[in-house]
Design brief:
GO terms for molecular function: sulfotransferase activity. A hairpin with a 2-residue loop joins β1 (about 25-30) and β2 (about 30-35). The protein has helices at about 5-20, 35-40, 40-45, 65-75, 80-85, 90, 105-110, 130-135, 145-160, 170-175, 185-195, 210-215, 215-225, 230-240, 245-250, 255-260, 285-300, and strands spanning about 25-30, 30-35, 55-60, 120, 140-145, 205. Strands 4-3-5-6 form a four-stranded parallel sheet, with helices on both faces. The chain has a two-stranded antiparallel sheet with strand order 1-2. With about 300 residues, it is of the alpha/beta class. It has a single domain (about 5-145, about 185-270), classed as Rossmann fold (3-Layer(aba) Sandwich). It is built from 17 helices and six strands. α13 packs across α14.
């Protein structure tokens, strides 16, 4: 991706897009709410030329994308962290549906020119991804996170970047995000599309909470899934590189260094990276309502979350 953009160029674009309060509007594509500018290029995205050796990180937003994309990038660089740290993660792993000002190519066109094997990230629901992903059996790593923690993380993110949920109280935000009117659609439909396909050989479904409990073990699982037989020392090094504190302190992995979030006191893309932080935000009534919704939407699927 950096064959077109330098880190400095990318940072300036993000500053314009996010700190200059550009209007954010939602459109709809095949019944899924998406940013209006994304809707305009969705036909192109659907016809994207997928390669059989592509590695995709797909998530509902705020489920652990930044974390796992860095693990995947480090693995696909065979643990060469010196090389990994030469460019920012957001340049190494193109955000498939990211749009830029008109004078610059869209991310999927930049990805077209990247050498194989590519690591590409997307938040698109499975049914909106390029159909070639499924016919060519490209590898997909999908991350599921407790929806309560997802709500808290997404709430702070939208406030920070002045997105659609900005200005809502947490109570109002829960109503918005727990509907099919929120950006990227409902979290449960997004989750279940991949959960139902978790046994397909080209799909690896991970839980954010398992990554927190055993990062080293999951780094090895990801490595094996991506077809890499890395040494124990290399897996240890990747695990250390991808710890939350090291990623937060590394300007080549922390999105704050590109999103200009660090220019405003108290704002940070990498906020806490914890499991169970929802307990500091939900009231008893909100928690009971959320539990009921989770039970309703996931009943009979086998997908459960710790309370």
């Amino acid at each position: 991706m950096d064959m077109y953009l330098t880190t400095e160029d990318f940072r300036e674009m993000m500053r314009v897009m996010y700190t200059d309060q550009q209007p954010y509007t939602l459109g709809e594509y095949e019944g899924i709410p998406l940013a209006s500018e994304v809707c305009e290029i969705m036909d192109e995205l659907r016809s994207f030329e997928v390669r059989a050796d592509d590695c995709w990180i797909v998530t509902y937003p705020k489920a652990g994308t930044t974390w796992v994309q860095e693990i995947m990038s480090a693995v696909m660089h065979d643990g060469n962290l010196e090389e990994v740290n030469k460019s920012h993660s957001m340049l190494r792993v193109p955000y498939f549906e990211q749009t830029f000002p008109e004078e610059l190519p869209t991310t999927h066109r930049i990805a077209d020119e990247m050498p194989s094997p590519r690591v590409i990230k997307s938040h698109l629901p499975g049914q909106l991804l390029p159909p070639q992903i499924w016919t060519k059996k490209a590898k997909i790593v999908y991350v599921i996170r407790n929806p309560k923690d997802l709500m808290v993380s997404f709430f702070h993110f939208e406030q920070m970047l002045n997105l659609k949920g900005a200005g809502l109280s947490f109570e109002e935000y829960l109503g918005y995000r727990n509907s099919k009117k929120a950006s990227y659609g409902s979290w449960w439909d997004h989750y279940l599309y991949f959960w139902k396909r978790r046994h397909q050989p080209n799909v690896l479904v991970l839980r954010f909470e398992d990554l927190k409990r055993d990062l080293r073990g999951n780094v090895e699982i990801i490595s094996q899934f991506l077809g890499k037989a890395l040494s124990a020392k290399t897996l240890d090094d990747i695990t250390e590189h991808c710890s939350f504190i090291n990623m937060k302190n590394n300007p080549m992995t922390n999105p704050d260094s590109l999103l200009a979030a660090d220019e405003i006191p108290g704002r940070s893309f990498m906020r806490k990276g914890k499991s169970g932080n929802w307990k500091t935000h939900f009231t008893v009534a909100q928690n009971e309502s959320m539990d009921a919704l989770i039970k309703e939407k996931l009943h009979g699927t086998g997908l459960t979350f710790d309370h």
